[in-house]
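Ticket #4471: structure export looks truncated?
Reporter: QA, pipeline team
Priority: medium

Steps to reproduce: submit the single chain below to the structure queue and open the exported record.
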Amino acid sequence: MSKTSQMTFRSMLRSVITSLKPGQQSSNEASRHAKRAFRRKFSFSQTVFIIIMVFLFLPLLILIFYSFNESISMRWTGFSLRWYQRLFTERELWRSFRNSIIIAVTSAATATVMGTLGAIGVNWYRFKLRGYVQTISFLPMILPEIIIGVSLAIFFAGIGIPLGLFTIFIAHTTFNLPFVFLMVMARLDEFDFSIIEAAQDLGATEKQTLLKVTVPICMPGIISGFLTAITLSLEDFVITFFVAGPGSSTLPIFIFSAITRKGGVTPVISALSVVMILGTVVLTYLLRNFLKYIAAK
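Actual output as written to the record:
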């Protein structure tokens, strides 16, 4: 056999062996694509994404940096923890923080109960005003906050309710309700109603079906709505500003007052922001794992 014939035979044999191993061929092709993608420069979308991330997180990094500044000015004079020490001695700040926690938990719990029952009722029953109830329930989410705040302030003044923690509670429950309603409705849209029929065939009453079948299945949506309501309540300023009375200051109102009184963000507010950022990150991580556990069950 000539050398040319041998080379032709070897190349044919190599091609046959390669065709018998498609995994190796696809692996080699994937590695070539990966190398090509690695060598490729950043695309326009990646560049825009990095710029947006820097724009969002750079102010937070600057805030954290200057919370450890010894001086009250923006000029760095040395590392110090004096503002964190002063943070834990501000009585008015912690009174406002306590008010925020009380309002957030109570209004979120009330909105969660009402929103859950409302979502189950709208999804479960068919009645004439069903479409109108769904539309009206979303109005507090769509309307600007300043309109809701002014209208609630006029309403409370008209019926003679003095402004205070109770009016803040009512206002926060009002704008938290649509968010809970929407999240529970989203969970109910994936609901298999054959489970309810099976429970009723087994002799379960409507109350037992609600408490032992419907609510446990909707629990991820209920917990998500409750946590969202707490977050919205803690950070709300515009609506709270219109319905808060003397001695009922919440944390956002206290921060706004401290900034306007002293003409800028003080290091104490920076230290408070750092503590809240760390607390939010820790709670988000813990609750994320908890929601995964609930959804898995």
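Status: closed, not a bug. The export was complete when the record was re-opened. Leaving a note from the reviewer for reference: The chain has a mean pLDDT of 79.
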